[in-house]
Amino acid sequence: MAEASAPPDLSTYQYDPCCPLPTGRAARDHVISKGPCRPRDHIFPVDKRNLSWYEKFDWLEYSVSLDKAFCFVCRVCNAQVSLRSEPTFIKTGFSNWKKVENLSKHEKSDCHKHSLQAYRHWKSQKPVDHQMSEEAERQESYRQQNILDLMSSSIESRFDKHNAPVLKGLGYLGPSRLASPEAWENISLAVQWFQSDLDVDALESEIFSLQTSLLLTNVNKKAKSEKRKASFDDLFKVLQTEPECYGNVIKLMKITLTLPLTSTSAERAFSKLKLIKSRLRSTMKQERLESLTLMSVEADILEQLDLEELVEKFVDMAPRKMDLV
After folding, report:
1. What confidence tens digit (pLDDT) does each residue in 192-239 have?
2. CB 86: neighbour CB atoms within 10 A?
3. Alpha carbons 58 and 52: distance in angstroms, whole number
4. Gap between the Cα atoms of 323 and 309, Å rounded
5. Membrane-crossing residues (predicted)?
6. What is the tens place of the pLDDT at every residue in 81-106?
7. In this structure, are residues 161 and 202 in contact, taking their beta carbons and an 8 Å threshold?
8. Would you kindly state where each structural domain of the chain is located, as residue ranges?
9. How far is the C-alpha of 187 from the C-alpha of 168, rounded, in Å?
């Protein structure tokens, strides 16, 4: 964008990086169009500054009144478009002349890159609102990419070479895969992690018995008649009617159902804890705290309960009954 004639309200304006930009659109554009403030006839203090930095960093500008350096593109564009900022190069000024490498670090920062993009848009004479909209979309895309990278990293850490065989083995407890010949071979790999909770020999017998039973066949047939695939939950509900025959299988399926794939549930509990145990409830006992936390975390299940039925059950469980009427 070519430099425009100075608006009348800039007659007393001081072109120095330490001065805030004017608020008017025309005045602000005029100041930006002048580019970085680079006094070349100024006598710098000895062994501190070097004019060659102007050529190396085309965004660098210098404030004579403060004896500090600033980033031109960040100073004029950062407040409008960037989520991150570096006050040293925008407001306070850079004066640590012994660490010139900080200039290169700033040039590689996200703050500087976003501001430089916005400045290039301004030079192409696009409206400010259009520039801000494009930069907001660009930053949103950048955040989404970071989230995807974080999710990918989390999945890789949770399903690494040690965890994957366990999860794969537990997956064979599903009705559609349990009947396969390699089911026990994969399940046995997962069972190694829970030997203290299970009778492995009895579990193996139960698995082979279940594979040849009509119970598993009926579960798959029922799901097929309903035009769907038999689920883990279908088999689990049926097995609960035969606890004497399939006690270890039921226990292993309960372990599978309680294995969290993410830390979301635990984090949710800690978030709720801050709301429940406030300063007004600081004397609450542990049992009541655990009950209230469980009710808060599992609010969706709580809303489905029949309160009248709960009251009746509570009355039936009371050790003493007294007719008040």
Report:
1. 888 888 898 999 999 999 888 888 889 889 988 988 888 888 899 989
2. 21
3. 10
4. 19
5. none
6. 545 667 777 787 888 777 778 888 88
7. no
8. 25-124, 161-258
9. 8
